[in-house]
Every structure is written in structure tokens, then in C-alpha cells.
Amino acid sequence: MISRAVSRLTYANAAATLALFVALGGSAYAGLAVTGSNVVNGSLTGADVRDGSLTGADIRNESLTGADIKAATLGQVPSAGHAGTAAQATSTAHANNSDRLGDSLPSAFFPAANVTKIDKDAAGCTTAADPGCSPTALDLGEFKVSYTCNLASVAQPHMRLAVDATGPNANVNWFYSVTPSGGTAAVTDAGSGGGTDIEVFALTPPTGHSDHVVGTIIYRADGQVVTISFTAFLVGRMSGGECILVGTSTKATG
Questions:
Q1: pTM for the full model?
Q2: How far apart are the first and last CA of the chain?
Q3: Which backbone phi and psi does 42 adopt, to 5 degrees?
Q4: Are 150 and 157 in contact (CB under 8 A)?
Q5: Distance CA 193, CA 70 (A)
Q6: Distance of CA 10 to CAs 4, 13, 51, 115, Å?
Q7: For residue 201, is pLDDT > 90?
Q8: What digits encode the pLDDT tens for the residues 31-84?
Q9: Radius of gyration of the chain (CA)
Q10: Sign of torsion, CA 75 78 79 82?
Q11: The dihedral of CA 62, 65, 66, 70: what is its sign?
């Protein structure tokens, strides 16, 4: 019986039987396909995922954090384009060019220490011996500015401005205009070599009147130039006067 069956087994019969087996097996495989619910949480690793097989659609929005990203693989943020041209910092305090303003070094500008405010107000002075009545308005060592205020005489209030110019090859020049109350301005310009107590101006307005002075003093010596812009008031009042000197001094060296 078996020999008769074997004798009747042909290639076509074998092929048909194999096809039936594959078809039935394929259906069984499809019915047993693995889904996410069949995978134990945390059991898959990177080695189980084919490189390049995941896309953005496979990642839940906002599920990744900075710890999941390798920073070296990120490109430049578009809005940080200018950062790429910044000079490398030489220290944690500043970058190579942060000490420049308008591409100029600090040496191109006046140091704050070289700009001095002048603000003096002597009131009720009746004698030049009172230190408050003969104040030093500016002291730069080799160049000094002082003034004297004497209001002892109501009929003749007096204010005097003088300078000391003692630096090497010192020279001082000044220009000012005096406007008396109710009068016309008078312009004066003069100069002098070095020395001490060089008088720039002396004011003695009539009783009850005032003088207003606006001017510039320039001191030059080896290695420096000092420029003073000033305004002075001598107020002569019957009840007591006042001497005021305000201005700004700038010193350039080099």
C-alpha cells in the first residue's frame, strides 16, 4: 500500500503540499505578530532598533530632555549667528575686544581721574585771611587755581583769580569776558610764562552791583595740557555779597 502511494508521489504533489504548509504557517505567523503590548517596559535597548529606522513621528512630543541629546551633534542656533564672529575670551572677565569703544582703545579717551569739577562758593567773607575766603579751586601739583573773595567793604567787594604754573617749560593763557550788571561785556585775553600767583582777573564792581565772568584757562607744560572752562560771579549786595566759581578741568597727558 505504501509502495503504491510512493509510486504515485509526483513533483506536482510535493509542491502543492509544501505550498499548503507555507500558506497555513504564514497565517499563523500573522496572527502571532508582536505589538508594543507584547514588549516588557525597559526590555529593548538601542541594539534592538535598526539605525535610522526611527523618525520624528515615532517620538512623543516633549518626551526628550537635554540629557537625551548629545550637544556636540547640534548645529548653530540661527539667532546666534553673530556669536560665531566674537573673539575668543581671554579670561572669564572679558573678551579680546571688549576693552574697545568704537574700535578705539581706552588710551584714546580721557580717564575719569583727568576730569575735575570746580565748585566753590565763598559767602560772607570779610578777610582774605579766612581759608574759606581764599580757597584752592584746583590742585594738580604743578598747576593750581585759587581765588580770593573779600566782602569786608560793601562799597568795594573784591574777587581775584590767580594760578600757579610751575611745570617744566610751563605756559598759561586765558580768555574771558566780564559782564557787569546793567553793563556791556568786556573781553580780555592774555598769557604768561611759568610762575606762581599769576593774576587772571580781579573784579571790584560798584556798590550793590555784580560781575559775571565766563572764560577759559589753558595750561601747557612738558607732557601735559590742562584746559579749564569756568564761570565766576561776584555778587556785591548791601546785606552781604558772595563769590562763586564753577567749571570743569580736563587734563591730557602724553
A1: 0.58
A2: 126
A3: 80, 5
A4: yes
A5: 74
A6: 12, 5, 47, 116
A7: yes
A8: 555 666 667 776 777 676 777 677 777 777 877 877 778 777 777 666 665 555
A9: 48
A10: positive
A11: negative
Fold of 112-253: Immunoglobulin-like (2.60.40)
Residue with cell 575735575: 116
Residue 146's identity, in one-letter code, is S
Q: What is the mean pLDDT of the chain?
A: 77
Q: Which grid cell is 165?
A: 604754573
234 neighbors 241 (Cβ within 8 angstroms): yes
Instruction: Give the start-to-end residue ranges of the domains of the chain.
Output: 1-33, 112-253
Residues 174 and 215: beta-carbon distance below 8 Å: yes
What is the spatial distance between Cα 215 and Cα 96, in angstroms, rounded to a whole number? Answer: 43
Instruction: Tell me the three state secondary structure of residue 52.
Output: coil
Residue 220 pLDDT exceeds 90: yes
